[in-house]
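Section 5.1 Outputs to date
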Amino acid sequence: MNIIKVIPITRGISKENLSYFTSIDVPVGSIVRVPLRKKIVNGLVVSKENATLLKSEIKTSSFAIKKIEKLTATKFLSPEFVKSAENAAEFFATSTSAILNAVIPKSILDNVDKTFTKRNSNEVQGTYQKLVLQTTDEERFTNYKSLIREEFARKSSVFFCVPTIGDIQKIRSVLEKGIEKYTFILHGSLRKKDTILIWNKILEENHPVLIIATGPYLCIPREDIKTIIIERENSRSYKTQTRPFLDIRIFAEFLAKETKSKILFGDILLRTETLWREQNEEIFPFAPLKFRSLTTAEQVLVDMKEKKDSSEKKFQIISDELADLIRTNKENNENLFIFAVRRGLSPTTVCGDCGHTVSCKTCNAPTTLHGGSENFFLCHRCGEKRNAKEFCAVCQSWKLTTLGVGIETVEKELKEKFSQIKVFVLDKDKAKTHEKAMAIVEEFNNTPGSILLGTEMALLYINKKIENAAVVSIDSLFSIPDFRITEKILYILLNIRSMAQKKFILQTRNAEQSILEYALKGNLVDFYREEIEARKTFGYPPFNVLIKITLQGQKLAVTKEMEKLETIFGKETIITFPAFVPLAKGKYTMHGLIKIAREKWVDKEILAKLLSLPPQFQIKVDPESLL
């Protein structure tokens, strides 16, 4: 008789592991189905001991150990993967159970018995290396292709990790040439049947393979994976939006260390934290980092402050310069991408008499005006929707004025002024599925002289260079009080600029902002110097690890609970404050913020306190935003 310790792989379990009796010989690392409360859940076997050797401990145990008569076990995860999950759990102040639930796809976890279990037996020696690559897309992928071929020659497989499904197709077409037979794609939109089929093919293949996939598929148990590439390292999509608020980039680094593999972070602009690590020789360049991003496109900055439509006495949406480009684009049968930062007609509506901003009645966030058969206000934060025929909630004035430019307003303007030109629109409202987004881009590519109008979402799907690109406005981002916002603006602009071969136009009413000059000149070194100095002044990453604790509920109760945090952690350790939008869906939100010097995290004392908090508290270590 054995006693096995099992980590339940499910949400909402605070215990790290549970113990069970079984007469079955269960290998450590197996996935098993075990009873928990009133249901059967998946679990990972982390240890096994003979029950006769633990008699005294069993007798004095404060809990009863359940006996399992029937047990189906499948050898699955390596000890190195489990250790990586444990390290990630400690870093993100959560349970190993929660981490495993986030890094093993449900389609695989629920069908482990249908997966191929024989691991690749190639004995490949690896070395833990942390590398970075900052250069243009073309140069990065040239480097990636060379690296993949070198690893294949060493009989080593490569895991190419991307943040979103949208990244996969354009990357696949570049990387798989010549190795199509050994290139495999995995992502969350595949059917369960197809996922299992591809998974098994990967494990059955004796030749080294290239796996292009999203983060959760890092769990695939091929022991010859000795290189992990994290492409588009600057993407915020690497962080999960639900518990345990895991950053796949950090988990992948833990995994590379445990498996003695090299990990390579690549992007046109690496995160400021990553660049700082390279400057301080924590990470090393795979090739010399490019701090000057060059382009062949003609670049034009258009100051929109004084531009007005002479006939209607209103601000121009399409500048004369952009209008000329649209006509030239049509005449030459070229393609033009136009970027609009916000969905809807207008991101903000204010009262022309009292200045009150029209806000959501549920969460108090500013609403966005959308069009349709009738205009309506939509809250992009909580989803509240209401008819736009209303008066000011403060002074009852009818004089409601829209501010800012939304994608629907740009679309309307384009179709009125250039009715003979085909305009495709790509945002979350027009493309609700991955397949729909791909179809829109494909039709745009096959329609010479056309325009693709899109939000940031479109950048994921444009899969080749185009002749021209333009930014209608990015100005609304400057008003967001987020310590990462300048980096985000530069990242967006660099990506749009890099896709244009002939001409790039940037319209703005903030022409004096230095970040716009950095984008047009591709001046990454001055941006980094300015950004790192600001981060140092305010104690932001990479100099400190930030831990954000969030609580929602009734205002009085939330305030009292957050005051208790000051007692638990000490006022000198934590500061508490209302959220940027404090009221959402009738619930009041407050945050607590802890700053710890990066070399001191993980602090065992603070970690213990974080883990002792009730589940209604959300804990985000290294959050993307403090809002």
